[in-house]
Specification:
TIM Barrel; 11 helices; 232 residues; eight-stranded parallel beta barrel
């Protein structure tokens, strides 16, 4: 006997998974403290450019942010594997919340393998292809960071790369989270959630836009206006 056809409107039940993590992409401690006070911030990503922009001491900045969030990516600046290993081990010793950020290069892959053997968490940065993502995951990266905004800048679709990576991740047991980096607008975050990305790291200005909607403002004004009438 044939099984009955499933109606087209039947809802597909999706297994529960943890909510997408939200990181702040900054080296500004005050901004981290502000967003952390909302109760929704899971971590911070930094890079040499952001640190240079703030003009603060790198180690002190990282330590102050580690007091506010449980995950702070601190990027190595060495170009060779031994240098990355030395810097990364130093950073990891600063605080248990530090995640060592390593560039997606062959030297970076060597460093990732080393850090994996030492139990040091890592974030592979400057990922621009599925093959780079796979290599980083196989080398032991805890997190990979594809840069969608920079791909958009070339005229290509950065979120298409996230879709391809997440599709590949469905086939394998990679113990590696996909972090959507170089986000430029709220649409990037929405699409990342649709695709099932594990993490988004977001600039301060864009993060401030996330809770906003004109209909919320209009609704609140109407509630307040109606309440003022009742009070009278």
């Amino acid at each position: 006997m044939d099984s009955p056809a499933i109606p087209e409107h039947t809802v597909r039940v999706i297994p529960f998974r943890s909510p997408m993590k939200l990181f702040l992409d900054t080296a500004n401690v005050a901004h981290v403290a502000e967003i952390a006070s909302w109760g929704v911030l899971d971590g911070v990503t930094t890079n040499p450019s952001l640190v240079a922009k703030e003009g603060k001491d790198f180690k002190q900045t990282v330590l102050e942010m580690c007091k506010l969030v449980p995950c702070v990516s601190a990027q190595v600046t060495a170009a060779d594997a031994p240098g990355m290993m030395e810097q990364g081990e130093e950073y990891a010793g600063w605080h248990k919340h530090v995640v060592v950020k390593v560039p997606m290069t062959t030297e970076g892959l060597k460093a990732l393998t080393h850090f994996k053997s030492k139990g040091i968490k890592t974030n592979t940065t400057l990922v621009f292809s599925v093959t780079q993502a796979i290599l980083a995951a196989k080398a032991g990266a805890t997190i990979i960071s594809p840069f969608v905004g920079r791909i958009d800048d070339t005229g290509e679709n950065g979120m298409a790369l996230i879709a391809d990576i997440m599709r590949a991740w469905e086939h394998y047991g990679f113990d590696c989270e996909v972090l959507v980096a170089s986000t430029r607008n709220t649409e990037h975050i929405t699409e990342a959630a649709r695709l099932g990305a594990h993490i988004c790291t977001i600039p301060y200005a864009v993060f401030k836009e996330l809770p906003q909607h004109p209909l919320t403002d209009t609704g609140l004004k109407k509630f307040q206006d109606d309440w003022e009438k009742v009070k009278k």
